[in-house]
Design brief:
By secondary structure, this protein is mainly beta. The chain has one domain. It has no helices and seven strands. Strands 3-2-1-7-6-5-4 form a seven-stranded antiparallel sheet, with no helix packed on it. β2 and β3 form a beta hairpin. It starts with a strand and ends with a strand.
């Protein structure tokens, strides 16, 4: 597997899905399902891990997702901007 790192390249998330965030299922959290990067659309088939990272007063969310061939790390910042942080390719 080859690891490709990016300098926070902004992406567009075109679809999300929701999952309960608490045992009583009254709150739901959204997760990325599809993104557009470099003019191409990628659909995620495997849900991965989600990390919450606190940087000072700021809370950043990282998502590890896969399209079945490659793995992607996505970042959602407090301003609701999505960026592609890194990718592992199967080549």
């Amino acid at each position: 597997m080859e690891i490709v790192s990016f300098n926070e390249q902004e992406i567009e998330i075109t679809a999300v899905y929701f999952r309960p965030s608490s045992p009583n299922k009254q709150r739901f959290e959204s997760f990325p399902r599809r993104m557009v990067y470099d003019g191409r659309e990628y659909t995620f088939v495997e849900e991965g891990l989600r990390y919450l990272i606190q940087k000072g007063q700021e809370l950043v969310k990282l998502f590890d997702v896969s399209d079945g061939q490659n793995q992607y790390r996505l970042r959602l910042d407090p301003a609701n901007r999505w960026t592609l942080v890194g990718m592992k390719t199967s080549v």
